[in-house]
Hints:
By secondary structure, the protein is an alpha+beta fold.
Amino acid sequence: MWLRPEEVLLKNALKLWVPQKSSGYFVLQRRRGHGDGGGRFTGRLVGALDAVLDSNARVAPFRILLQVPGSPVYSAIACGELLNGSEVYWAIAAGATLEEINQHWEWLEQNLLHTLSVFDNKEDIVSFVKGKVKALIAEETRSKVAEQEEDPEKFREALVKFEARFNFPEAEKLITYYSCCCWKGKVPRQGWLYLSINHLCFYSFFLGKELKLLVPWVDVQKLERTSNVFMTDIIRITTSSKERDFSMFLNIDEAFRIMEQLADVTLRRLLDNEIFELDPGLQDPTQITKRDLEARAQSEFFRAFFRLPGKEKLHEVADCSLWTPFSRCHTAGRMYTSDSYICFASKESGCCNVLIPLRE
């Protein structure tokens, strides 16, 4: 899978990774403990830690890094040396299998390598690659949503387990579910996170011990993305009595967005006044679906991004390109249509945004 590019400090990180191949701008690495026979203590230790975690939550065994040639950190990565400095690199892809990561590597070689050579400075290279990867992530996300809706069999199996484990009334509708870890102090408990209309639920059965957590959305006082000593990105749920930390390797953005929507819908239903009026499609809780929540989140993003009135409803979103005279090229982005506006936002953040009132 493609990863949203972020600067990461390269301080002692190479102890856990082995270089497999490199090109002028990219490095493919394998995590120790995967495919090396466990000949060294570090490899055995890393492999054991990864084996404890579920395959959807653990660190992917393969990854691709972006590093501009010419800097000392690039040479050290390519040679597999260990650095003690605080240089940075960009992780742009990860894979559970060698076949998956090689597909990403081949795409980079075929679509980016010949283009990057025309840039004169490192900042332009990094900006260009980050923009391409973010566009790929957007396409990948839309494909995953479509696949999930077209194949309901896995959801049906999860629903049966959810009903058996928590014994809710039939009116308690399951919206979606994720594989994740719930942290108890310094110890992660691998299990399943279930998001329903009225509750956040977690179930784990590990080493003979069963753990069930039920958090009503009405009790949630704070919902945030944060970090702890072991994980750089976790979801923290705060109630009047406890804090719960959840971490996952995949789908953390989607999970957090759905949590926000469910908590917000619950709050609006409780207040039930003109200011916090529910959307018509969310009036009946038993009819709410994951698609409804995603559409609602997209509309809220659209209104906030273009600073439009709260009653402005988003109708369609389409990928397109806009001729931008200042750069003398077509800029890739998305067109949004609503009741009163046509809007455009470039895929590269901050490059070009356009808002056209239909009355004009």
